[in-house]
Amino acid sequence: MLLGHTRIAAESTVSEKTVDAIYWAAVRGAPCWVRDHRGHVRELPMSRWIGGQGAARDDRFADEHVLRLCSPRPTLDLGCGPGRFTAALQHRGSAALGVDTCHTAVELTRQRGGTAIQADLFGPLPAAGCWDQILLTDGNIGIGGNPMQTLRRVAELLAPDGIVIVEIDLPLAKSGHELLRWETEHHVGKWFPWSRVNADALDDIAAAAGFLIVNIVEIHARVIAVLCRHTHSRGY
Predict the structure, then answer these.
(1) Where are the beta strands (DSSP E) in the chain?
(2) pTM, entire model
């Protein structure tokens, strides 16, 4: 039994190191992509995830919309990646915490002045029930492959009158569950569950998790929605 646990721990460590290696390769400009279980490949949008002047003008505009939706009160950035939102909010004087399972992502967030921890959003997190804004940008509602479960977890972390800012797929994109892995020329990551969600699907998923869509806009091929609990409503 001990040998079994040791093997699982070793495999987990190898997988984490592979993700870190792919992340660093992408940051340095190497071609990196994500493959789904059907064999379809799409490029990792690392320049958008990093943000700043290296990102496309349209992406910077969409990111600014997300930042304007956040009040100065505490924001939890789930799946923060390299931390562009976490760091930008802190530079503007707002309290923010980034959360990501990838060690490299957390380090990159800290290097740009953001506060971040390496953790699973479904595990213990600080200040549960007290976050005024929770970010699920870059499609992160799909983390874990079950968007309803993700939103129900978010509901546990959110303050009673807080909001969730969600980035989803374009209306014509197909919603559904998929298995993904990150790849480069030299590295192949481990398969992980994911879901893609468009606006039509979000309506039902949000309602089932106890949320209401109070605002949804398409900005340069990116769709940003604001959710609040059924019992609270704000004007956006």
Answers:
(1) 33-36, 41-43, 75-78, 96-100, 116-118, 131-136, 158-168, 176-183, 192-196, 211-219, 222-229
(2) 0.90
